[in-house]
Amino acid sequence: MLANLPRNIYMRSLLRVLFRFIVLMHVTPAFSNGGPVELNVQSPHGGISPLKKTNVRLIEEKLDIRIDDLARHYTVNAIYTLSNTEGVRSVKYGVPFILPDNEQGAKRKILDIEIAINNKKINCDVLEGTDAYSNNIVYRYKLKGPLYWCVADLAIPKGKNNVLHVIYRGSMQYSDSKTGNYPFVTYGHRSFQYLLFPASNWEGSAKKIDISIDLGKFVEVVSDVKPAGYKRQDTKLRWKLSNVDFHRTDEIRFQLKVNALLGFKERSGWYPDKNVFYSVDVQMLEASIEEKFKQAEFSLKNLLDRDSQTAWCADGQFGGVAEWFTLQIKQQYKHDACWFVGFVIVPGYTRNAETFSAYGRVSSLSISECDADMAMPGASKAYKLDLPRQYNMSAQVIHYDDIKPNACLRVTIDDIDEGKVHKGACLSTFVPLYSCDI
Questions:
Q1: Long-range contacts: 16-20, Cβ < 8 Å, 24+?
Q2: Residues spanned by CATH 2.60.40.3680 within the chain?
Q3: What is the CATH number that goes with domain 271-436?
Q4: 25-260 has which CATH code?
Q5: Could you tell me if 321 and 379 are in contact, meaning their C-beta atoms sit under 8 angstroms apart?
């Protein structure tokens, strides 16, 4: 299409396209369990290799991982119970990790690691993995090196209940993009890869491994989970394993498709800096049913919090039909390339699959302007919402671009899709939407 334009217009258009898509964020992960290692002093390049014999047994590992709000990073909290049947043993403990090229100067700070043995904190040294062992990890698991190790000297006393506690920050593999003239971020899929096998270097097999990964709001968009045998408990994936051979159960993997959850926030005033991006100052005024809103769970303000896990619900005489709320567009701040086009809506109470089916959903609504007293509506526009049959937190858009500064709008429920347990109907989100010239 661009090639059919006159040359000067074609070049300007091409440069605009190239400029707008130059910003790309890609992160390579700190990604692995830790385990006993030794320094390879015989190699001319030095490096790390697995410790062949430790005489220290891993009795139990509790591995808790928590994904952050943007699913870009996670926190690892690992507690190892170690048994040493003889005197104090010195063991080098190493955690492998990878840094993006632009973060090489902040090696240990990026990892943000804490190590303690029996509540005594231990520092670690950061070493580059130039050896065959490290290179093999990079090649086998298709990582983007180079590999580094945070190596700590542990003094493990005699006893069956020595506690090694390790906390650090890891990163998902992801690619988010942002164009030069466009204020929104496009969120790519997240890939989680966490290697377990470095813990195999303790003596014998691990008797008990308890793994918990808290996905938070992303639990409904997880896919391709490995290994099998996990159970879902609320927002967590749980594995309970015994007599574990880490060479066979060597890694955890899954995918998160996050754009439906995070993308609508970008398009609905997510950035608070009005001088740089854009915003609409919106105020919820009143609603037809007040007593329900005294409960924080169903507060009217939940419509503007851009959180699809909260909701406003109405259950009047006709099960929510004909109930309404009013809002005022008080002031607009526009990005040069963006303009107000309508509203982003998440129908239903989408906190989880249970609330999604138990509570009704608004299936159609109308929007009209209020009068000077913000009470009697004027001419209205009706909208029928596309309701997914299965649990879904994705947002949808209704267009209402004929908006005036300081406008008062009344939103009225015209029809509902009844829930299995509760009367009435819910909306999780109702926020202004911008479109931009890309």
A1: 16/181, 19/180, 19/181, 20/179, 20/180, 20/181, 20/182, 20/438
A2: 25-260
A3: 2.60.120.260
A4: 2.60.40.3680
A5: no
Phi-psi bin for 142: left (phi > 0), alpha (psi -120 to 50), beta? Answer: left
Residue 83 is which amino acid?
Answer: S
Whole-number CA gyration radius for the chain: 27
Q: Which tens digits make up the pLDDT trace of 115-155?
A: 999 999 999 888 877 777 777 787 777 777 678 888 999 99
List, as own/partner pairs, every contact residues 401-405 make where C-beta atoms lie below 8 angstroms and the sequence separation is at least 24, other chains included: 401/339, 401/340, 401/341, 401/342, 403/329, 403/340, 404/329, 405/329, 405/331, 405/332
Q: How far is CA 316 from the centre of its chain?
A: 36
Q: How far apart are the first and last CA of the chain?
A: 15
Q: CA 90, CA 54: separation in Å to the nearest integer?
A: 9
- What is the spatial distance between Cα 217 and Cα 215, in angstroms, rounded to a whole number? 6
**What are the φ/ψ torsions at residue 17 (nearest 5 degrees)?**
-65, -45
pLDDT digits 0-9 by tens, 280-333: 567 777 777 654 544 567 888 888 877 777 888 887 666 788 888 888 876 554
* CATH 2.60.120.260 domain span(s) along the chain: 271-436
